[in-house]
Amino acid sequence: MGSLFRSETMCLAQLFLQSGTAYECLSALGEKGLVQFRDLNQNVSSFQRKFVGEVKRCEELERILAYLVQEINRAHIPLPEGETSPPAPPLKQVLEMQEQLQKLEVELREVTKNKEKLRKNLLELIEYTHMLRVTKTFVRRTVEFEPTYEEFPPLENDSLLDYSCMQRLGAKLGFVSGLINQGKVEAFEKMLWRVCKGYTIVTYAELEEPLEDPETGEVIKWYVFLISFWGEQIGHKVKKICDCYHCHVYPYPNTAEERREIQEGLSTRIQDLYTVLHKTEDYLRQVLCKAAESVYSRVIQVKKMKAIYHMLNMCSFDVTNKCLIAEVWCPEAELHQLRRALEEGSRESGAALPSFMNTIPTKETPPTLIRTNKFTEGFQNIVDAYGVGSYREVNPALFTIITFPFLFAVMFGDLGHGFVMFLFALLLVLNENHPRLNQSQEIMRMFFNGRYILLLMGLFSVYTGLIYNDCFSKCVNLFGSRWNVSAMYSSSHSPEERRKMVLWNDSVIRHNRVLQLDPSIPGVFQGPYPLGIDPVWNLATNRLTFLNSFKMKMSVILGIIHMTFGVILGIFNHLHFRKKFSIYLVSIPELLFMLCIFGYLIFMIVYKWLVFSAETSRVAPSILIEFINMFLFPASETDGLYPGQEHVQRLLLVVTALSVPVLFLGKPLFLLWLHNGCSCFGVSRSGYTLVRKDSEEEVSLLGSQDIEGGSNQMEDGYREVTCEEFNFGEILMTQVIHSIEYCLGCISNTASYLRLWALSLAHAQLSDVLWTMLMRVGLRVDTTYGVLLLLPMVALFAVLTIFILLLMEGLSAFLHAVRLHWVEFQNKFYVGAGTKFVPFSFRLLSLKFSDDVA
Amino acid sequence: MLEGAELCFNVDHGYLEGLVRGCKAGLLTQQDYVNLVQCETLEDLKIHLQTTDYGNFLANQTSPLAVSTIDTEMRKKLCREFEYFRNHSLEPLSTFFTYMTCSYMIDNVILLMNGALQKKSVKEMLVKCHPLGRFTEMEAVNIAETPSDLFNAILVETPLAPFFQDCMSENTLDELNIEILRNKLYKSYIEAFYKFCKNHGDVTAEIMCPILEFEADRRAFIITLNSFGTELSKEDRETLYPTCGKLYPEGLRLLAQAEDFEQMKRVADHYGVYKPLFEAVGDGSGAKTLEDMFYEREVQMNVLAFNRQFHYGVFYAYTKLKEQEMRNVVWIAECISQRHRAKINSYIPIL
Question: What sections of the protein cross the membrane (chain A) (predicted)?
């Protein structure tokens, strides 16, 4: 529990790592995850650090591994994921590993290249055979067309001349044939026509089966085309256009025999290629399978190695360049473990000189470490979302564990809804080791991470539901109502009683729509219901009025208790940080201010509840009026709640009025007096910086350490911390602002707690509406067909209950509970200006492939 | 679009504008440049770029790293972003994007024609083409022998077609003619783009028109500067000036008469915007060139474009800024790889 109440004590340690053993030591530290490294080379840019070369090498390895994983995935070979994480590779093995991997990569690249080449060849050959097959039909057609073309020229003399000229010059018909991508056909044809001005004939046919594109590997539809043209010039142009549209052009056989020969040749070559390709693929598969076995551990190892070098980059060299100096934050409780890890690392590397550490005093604020388990983690997260606690300050998460679900339940009070929520959370908790829950999507994971919060919220809602006596907006009559209606009848009383009191008789019952029970009549009210609200109120028309009054007072009482508790926690902080004066000058005036006004309000509420009974309720004064009169001192004397009330109230007001100036001026004046009178006292003034060891000697010791370390930047850092200027104006301003905020906050925060009432009212009303709109309609239908209607009604009721009442209302109550904690509770004592302790731990590395593939 | 882009701009283009502003936040900062300049090798440069928005874009490159790979990879990245914007855009933003690509397309066409003139293979030239201005018909450019051929056969269906009206001629394409063709194309392109933005109205016009005016005037100055000592006649020169800038009409007429840098400077003195740019140009080794000054001014205008919301200018500005950034990185990388550190600091800082 101690560890949850305050963050752990940290100390700054200097590790002297012998340069030979640094790697092994860090590897040991990383496995344990003990320490957080400080960056000692902040002003050195990333590429000028010591171990850039090694980091680069790791990146090179990562690149190769990523390539391997990609190839393995492409070959659909399963990648085994190991459960254990192998330790970072020893330095001697790294070179070996690198060599192995590089060899593997070269081999793989060669084989894949060969394979791709073979594949491309094969595809081209297949395309060629297809083309030959298809164009065979074209030729017959072109032969058929030719006569018509020859008849065409006579219409135009010029072209006839051209034509005959060409024939004379021996220009013969040329053919270009090939395959073209389906999408490009139209543009291709258009350009051909435009460039060659119609002196070409293009014939197309679509290939039935889609083929793979040798360049991109995409499977698409192709068109086979055949262009016939006359003349060299046009031929060149046609070829260029074919290039432009990335056509696959193949030589066109002129005669039928040639065609047959080519086809035969092709088929044998395709056969050969197939066998070669199969062999290559088999070999590739073998290589990949072998690689797949070790690739997981390699990936992890390289990741660890890279992490180690990143950490080493944060260390500085000492003057002799023989050892690395690292500065780390380490929890004091784990210093011995740190020592042991260093010994282990040294032993492993077999170095002559062991690495060692010593702690150094510092005035800097250490990071905050609060150890959590799976139960407290969710609550700690709620607090951390507001701000990570300052070092060693009181951690509100401990109290949040109870107050958070409780305040939530006050707003969500319903036995049935709470129970459903509890069951859902219980399901999550019982199955928390199920692997699917851990890897589910974002929303589900959110519920999963908050499962213990949900569990407690559900339980507390069951409790408040019992108190409100609300179960799906209906009352539960567990113990039998303590109100007796029959006692109201005149016949059950003696005649003299009948004369004194207003009782019911037959005519009253017949003529009044609304009947009133009078608790002052003996026998009607038989004492309070054992637990919560009496179920008879469910029938009463003034139920809301009654509940509102109750819930409003309850939320004010809860709120003031909650806030007062916050102020008291502030005292713990002051005690811990040795600022006793703050208790007298800040906390106690704050407490007095709060209690004298609002504590008195609670007193009045409780007093009125206890003192006035059913008989005297008509003369009971209004608390509101009394409370207002406390500040206004009206001339007219009222009865008041109790005798001497006026004097008590005056006294309380005087105390309140006196505490305000103390609150405003007390602390600044005291600090000023300290500064002027006894400045040797040496109290850390602003913020909660560490006050552990700050005597004069140690500051001087610090200085000498710095010179040893030889780091200018470090010195600057310390100087900043030590030379704090005493600025009275600033302190005064801070205190005044804080006080104004507190005094106004007392009023507004109290009002803010009324949200407890408002939300619980809204929740009750909404579930009531749902009941009347659905279930009552469903239940009213006559018995014969009612079942048929009732079934969908219940289903709808269940769905709406879950989505509106549980999810939506639950979310809103959750948010309001979060707000009440963050704003109203935590601003009384919580600074939340710390930084989280992030240890250098291999466990935080992602142990998945998905990252490298992406 | 009607007045009041605030009302309906976000319906169609809000997502993209948000995206482009996010991308702009990823531009290299002054601190990044300071670090980049300190790099000793290209590997260092790569490591530093990894910490920026570029991320692991060089992770799969085997060492040794060449400047050209850095350049290509950066271009690819820009291209990916641009394609994403373009694929998700609606009219009229998509037309705007088309206009933006046109300038790259013109450059590519001219580059390919120059390549064909020098008998280089198309494949070799394709690598040098800017990926943003890539289109299928591009590779067939070397078939054409005259501008009208080029238009009729190849570019009829591309977005470049409308810009060809002024430059249909039967001249053979030699080096000078290609250069003239480029400038004429660019002139009609920039005028058309200007008209488009002007007609669009609203904030887009308010932002884009000054940028395009500046672009037009810059071209006019550069054309004048490059034509000194060539066989280009003054009349021909005047026909190449884009007419949508601030210089139009008097400034352009004066520019056409200019015969050396001093006369050009005198023309610029009449214009408050350009006067300081010309004054900052020095002769010394460490001094800035006119081109640098223009770049700086452009960067400044593009950065300011981000101060207004609900307009298309941000997309233009982002692309230009990114290009400038790429030029800077390439410049630094070149300086590093050639061990020529004296001039490494003369990149154009993006504010």
Answer: 406-430, 451-468, 554-572, 584-607, 648-666, 785-807
Distance to chain B for A59, nearest Cα, Å = 8
CA distance A810 to A813: 5
- Report residue A722's pLDDT band, with 50, 70 and 90 as the boundaries: very low
Residue type, A508: V
Taking CA–CA distances from A191, the nearest residue in chain B reads: B153
Distance CA(A662)–CA(B182), nearest Å, equals 83
Residue B159 lies in a domain: yes
Residue B347 located in a structural domain: no
Q: How many Å apart are CA B252 and CA A447, to the nearest integer?
A: 71
Q: Answer positive or negative: Cα dihedral of A389, A394, A399, A403.
A: negative
Q: Do B47 and A191 touch (CB under 8 A)?
A: no
- B343 in any annotated domain: no
DSSP state, residue A804: I
Is residue B351, in this structure, part of any structural domain at all? no
Question: Do B47 and A240 make contact, defined as CB atoms within 8 angstroms?
Answer: no
Interface of B with A in 10-69 (CB under 8 A): 35, 38-40, 43-44, 47-48, 51, 59-60, 63
**Residue B97 burial by Cβ neighbours in a 10 Å radius (0-12, 13-18, 19+):** buried
Verify whether the Cβ–Cβ distance A195 to B153 is below 8 Å. yes
Q: Is the pLDDT of residue A195 over 90?
A: no
pLDDT digits (tens, 9 = 90+) for A21-63: 888 888 888 888 888 888 888 777 767 777 888 888 888 888 8
Of residues B47, B51, B60, nearest to A52 (C-beta):
B47
Cα of A63 to nearest chain B Cα, Å: 6
What is the phi-psi region of residue A383: left when phi exceeds 0, alpha when psi lies from -120 to 50, beta otherwise? alpha
Using a CB–CB cutoff of 8 Å, tell me whether A244 touches chain B: yes
Tell me which residue range forms the domain holding B99: 2-338
Convert the pLDDT of each residue in A403-448 to its tens digit. 999 999 999 999 999 999 999 999 999 988 887 777 777 888 888 8
| Candidates A45, A187, A240; nearest CB to B136 | A187
Residue B137 forms contact with A (CB below 8 Å):
yes
Contact A191 B38 (CB under 8 A): no
Identify the closest residue of chain A to B58 by CA–CA distance. A63
Taking an 8 Å cut-off on Cβ atoms, the answer to whether B157 and A243 are in contact is no
B126 touches chain A (CB under 8 A): no
Q: CA A734 to CA A725: how far, in whole Å?
A: 15
For the stretch A208-253, pLDDT in tens is: 777 777 777 777 788 888 888 777 777 777 887 887 777 888 887 7
Please report the number of interchain residue pairs, chain A to chain B, with beta-carbon separation below 8 angstroms. Answer: 56
Put simply, whether A47 touches B (Cβ < 8 Å) is yes
Q: How many domains is chain B built from?
A: 1
Q: And the tokens for A434?
A: 């199920």
**Do the interacting molecules here have an ipTM over 0.90?**
no
Assess contact for A8 and A331: CB atoms under 8 A.
Answer: yes
Question: Cα angle vertex A569, ends A411, A364, to 5°?
Answer: 120
Residue B152: list chain A partners with CB under 8 A: 194
Mean pLDDT of B115-134: 83
Least confident range of A112-121, A440-449, A706-715, B166-175? A706-715
pTM of the model: 0.70
For A473, phi then psi, to 5°, come to 75, 5
- Closest to A191 (Cβ–Cβ): which among B39, B63, B140? B140
Contact of B119 with chain A, judged by CB distance below 8 Å, is answered with: no
Asked whether the predicted pLDDT for residue A562 surpasses 90, the reply is yes
- Average pLDDT over all residues of chain A: 81
Q: Packing angle between helix A809-819 and helix A397-411, nearest 10 degrees?
A: 140
Q: Which residues of B touch A215 (CB under 8 A)?
A: none
